Amino acid sequence: MIDRLDNLADLVHTPLFGILLTLVSYRFALWVYGRSNSLPLFHPFLVASIPVIVVLPLVGVDYVEYRDQTTLISFLLGPATVALAWPLYRQLHTVRSVLTPILIATVLGAFISAAIAVGLAWWLGAPAEVVGSLAPKSITTPIAVEVVQSTGGYVSLAAGAVAITGIVGALAAGPIFRLLRVTDDRIKGFALGLVAHAIGTARAFEYGEKAGAFAGLALGLCGLVTALALPWLWPWVAQYL
Amino acid sequence: MIDGLLILLFFQFLGEVLIRLTSIPLPASVVGMVLLLLALLLNAPFSQRVAPAAGALIKHISLLIFPLGVGIVLQWHRYEDYALALGVAVVLGTLLSMLLVTLMLKKLLGGKHGKSRGGSHD
């Protein structure tokens, strides 16, 4: 009997357990998100994390083991990043007329977001790895977790910082647009996509199709520009940290 | 779906090949994304087949990501000393970025092409 129970308990050390826990948590998070009418505060990233964070210590599986169990899931981040070319391609068509200012805005905006995060963290005394984890915080997560490896940061921290950035950006957008008297849906969408990536894009669609399309474009371009620039620029930034 | 996945993995593989040949410091998947974008802009014959797999992966991106994010809490001892710097950089930093980026966009895009009416939904 004891042997059988031990056998059963060993089940938590298999990929099947980790993947099942991940899917159940995600399914639960989707349900909560739907019930909350897609409130940014109840984003699936945050809600899905809770059951995993509670269950893993209870069954005695540490984070490194869980990460190994779920390799199959994280592997899909690669093709998911490649997949971003598709919406980018679709949206490039819709904004051909304002492409030049859009590209300038992307480069400046990507720089502003990264520089502010890096500057604040550095000023408050965070070590180089933590600062490096925050540099890609305004870009979409699949690209961010790839790029963070070139800045010597932590993947977990980058993923979390990206999610919180998206949530804060989406929540702050309304008040900021009112404060600055923004009435142009293109600006609302582009700002949301640029600073708050996918979560901001979901918020932008509430302003309408046009805002959503501009947000999607900003998300793709900002991720691309940051991914292309950061690995080259970082060694130069890092020597001052 | 299978066609789409095949195309995505193939372009990621191309990215990997290119990186190994040139040793450019970029993630393979980002290079794959650029290559796929170029192929789509050049009207590659498979463009419609990418859509189902691309759509499904992007829709459920949170599922692919959050198992990495739980590390923040489960390895908190690594980060607790910098909690203040992290909180300020992420929360205040995002507010500042949003403010500055919106101002910049007003300068760059404001006044050009048909402005939409205040707060109206299209």
Walkthrough of the structure:
The complex is a heterodimer of chains A (241) and B (122). With 241 residues, chain A is an all-alpha fold. Chain A folds into 2 domains: 2-75, no CATH class; 82-238, no CATH class. Chain A has helices at residues 2-10, 15-35, 44-59, 63-69, 71-75, 77-83, 85-94, 99-123, 128-134, 141-147, 155-179, 185-204, 209-238. In chain B, helix 1 packs across helix 2 (28-41) and helix 1 packs across helix 3. Chain B is mainly alpha-helical.
- Report how far the terminal alpha carbons of chain A are from each other: 58 Å
Query: Total strand count of chain A, please?
Result: 0
Proportion of helical residues of chain A: over 70%
Could you state the order of secondary-structure elements of chain A as H and E?
Answer: HHHHHHHHHHHHH
Helix content of chain B: over 70%
In what range is the share of β-strand residues of chain A?
Answer: under 5%
Mean pLDDT of chain A: 90
Largest interface: A-B, 108 and 81 residues
Beta fraction of chain B:
under 5%
Q: Which quaternary structure do these chains form? A: heterodimer
Helices of chain A, by number, come to 13
Q: Sheet bearing the most strands of chain A, described?
A: none
- Biggest sheet statistics of chain B: none
Count of distinct structural domains of chain B: 2
Compute the gyration radius of chain A: what is it? 20 Å
N-to-C SSE string of chain B, H for helix and E for strand: HHHHHH
Shape estimate of chain B: extended
Structural class of chain B: mainly alpha
Structural domains of chain A: how many: 2
> Kindly state the mean pLDDT of chain B as a whole number?
85
